[in-house]
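Model it.
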Amino acid sequence: MPTNPLSERPPIVEQLRAESRGLPLRPAKRNRQEPTRPSAEDCRRMFTIENGNRWLELARREPEAKMLFGELWHQGELCMLFADTNIGKSVLAVQIGESIARGQGIAPFACQAPPARVLYIDFELSQAQFGLRYSQGDEDHRFSDNFFRAQYNFIPDPPPNVDENDLLIAAIEYKVNLSKATVLIIDNITCLRGGTENSAVALSLMKSLKALKTDHNLSILVLAHTPKRRNATQPITADDLHGSKLLINFADSAFAIGKSTLDTDLCYLKQIKQRNTRQRYGPDNVCLCRIQKPGTFLHFTFEGNSAERHHLLSRTTADRRQLADKIAALSAAGLSQRDISRELGIGLATVNRLIRCADMQMRECADEEGCADEEGCADMRVGGCADEEGCADALMTNDVMTNDQEKCPDEKAAALCDSLPWEGREGYSEPGITYEERPDAEHTTAEVIQSPPTINDVMTNDPKASQHLKFNPDCDRNTSTIDKLLTPELLDQILRTTTRKNSIRGRRDDKSAVST
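Modeled.
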């Protein structure tokens, strides 16, 4: 006789048993139904098996995958385009879609395919925002009749018992059939399905897109983001795609847009993954580009090629920006420059220099753009003086030679204040060696020049010797940059300050001797 498990008892029986024992009813857990083993009929169509020669014969019958956007995207591919926020992914995606719809390439990227119907799924821009990008006054850009844009409409009450992500995929498939599109652009994957960091979610998403591509013979371009705090000193790789690694593993090709540190308006395209071609736009040959709008169409213009390493943030520049960020934060907290110097353990001249460079950049931003872009001004302030040549003249001041020198307690502190303006670090000068700037060189650098001992006479109490050394043309070649900037009035002030300090120090020595 078969036993009746507890989980199979009727609920009324369970209730009576609980009442008789004076216990609350606790429904028993139902046993999970065990999956049935797939039959041969269910799985026989999942794979197609042929020998190697037969596969080569079948491959020759397939039409050649033509270029849609040069070597970066081919027909029949699921391609990923990723970049940081507000760099221009949507601008480039619309430009690519318009070129495919017209069957015209974007130099230097060829479009070998004939004009095709393109469906652009826009999850980001509103109708007004899209209109501002592709109009100028009363004039609008005339898009191709093959270019279709679908704008997402939020549904407050989705159908019950239907997953929202599956609903989105079904809606996209419906619009593909309606527009008879062969090219699909999705902007962007974050809106399509959230939580792509989860490998299970990412795998389900890529399977849905692969099935969509296969069922409708589509070429799909999906836009994605990079992490918020990407290291700007490192080149762009597949690991910079935000989300699970399965996203790019299941993609046929991928390319990225990087931001150049040489120019705020300069970007570059880099080829990350390819299967139908060789890598042409790799780390040694990225394609440079800028966003421009000469008329009604906002688009990228391409300006040749370069190595990616030239556009990355160097370690020295990164350290300088980090230091400038700390100085800006302490200055905003109300600390004086001397307090900041003691807090960070750097020279007073460096603190003064970085604050002055930040102010200079802020003033330039205010003059040119009216400081409408607060984030841009903040980047310029934090970045400090990235253009060392441009700030060389502003940095070559004689702050070290002013009365602030009285606050240096000893020679070591005074030496800390005497660092090169363009070095970005503090150090001590070797005896008998001064540094001189050569403005006529291609890149302004600091050269070490062996100077005669008489160069230090400018700091003596002999004004005649100082002025002779300052204004003697024969000695000008051996004079440091700071010496060239000294004026007679400043020399008199220094001499008066030095004399006063010596007299005060002499009185203190006399008092100490008397007390002893």
